[in-house]
Amino acid sequence: MQYLATPELLLIEDSCDDERLALRAISQSAIACHVTVQRDGLSAINHLLDDDSPEPALIILDYDLPYLKGDEVLSHLRKSEKIRFTPIVVFSGQESEDCLKNCYNSGANSFVAKPSLAEDFQAEVARILEYWLRVNRTI
């Protein structure tokens, strides 16, 4: 995987409030990245599979999305050579055992529960960025 000086991050999130909190956490983090937001699973797949779209260094994926759920998005993306090794973190309020199994079976690298408090939410996003964009190494 080739990284640009400023890594690309794709946030797939349909909630305006959660998007705002995530973008605030990203802008306040010590990790500079370019963020693209997609609001539903189908648009995210189309965006990622477009040859002209940059390859993201990280995808943060909500589970409960319009058109396609997170595990369905994962299944589509993991079939693509372009996205096959891209880290995908499911960041969701949906925490059922079936949801977790479906996400991991569909190719999620990590599943992080969305906290209900804004400050905790932002701290989790910052931890996701720190680990996946600084600590972890991918192909």
Give the helix level as a range of percent: 40-55%
**Using DSSP, what is the number of strands?**
5
Q: Decide which structural class fits the backbone.
A: alpha/beta
SSE pattern, N- to C-terminal: EHEHEHEHEH
Q: Helical segment tally?
A: 5
Distance between the termini: 6 Å
Residue stretches low in confidence (pLDDT < 50, at least 5 long) are none
**Proportion of beta-strand residues:** 15-25%
Shape: globular
Strand order of the largest sheet: 2-1-3-4-5
Major sheet size, sense and barrel closure = 5 strands, parallel
- Whole-angstrom Rg: 14 Å
The average pLDDT value, as a whole number, equals 92
Structure report:
- The chain has 139 residues and is α/β, with parallel strands linked by helices.
- The chain has five helices and five strands, in the order βαβαβαβαβα.
- It has helices at 16-28, 41-49, 70-78, 97-106, 118-135; strands at 8-12, 34-38, 58-61, 88-92, 110-113.
- A five-stranded parallel β-sheet has the order 2-1-3-4-5, sandwiched between helices.
- Helix 4 (97-106) links the parallel strand 4 (88-92) and strand 5.
- Helix 1 crosses helix 5 (118-135).
- The relative contact order is 0.20.
- The mean pLDDT is 92.
Task: Briefly characterize the structure.
The chain is α/β, with parallel strands linked by helices and 139 residues long. The chain has helices at 16-28, 41-49, 70-78, 97-106, 118-135, and strands spanning 8-12, 34-38, 58-61, 88-92, 110-113.
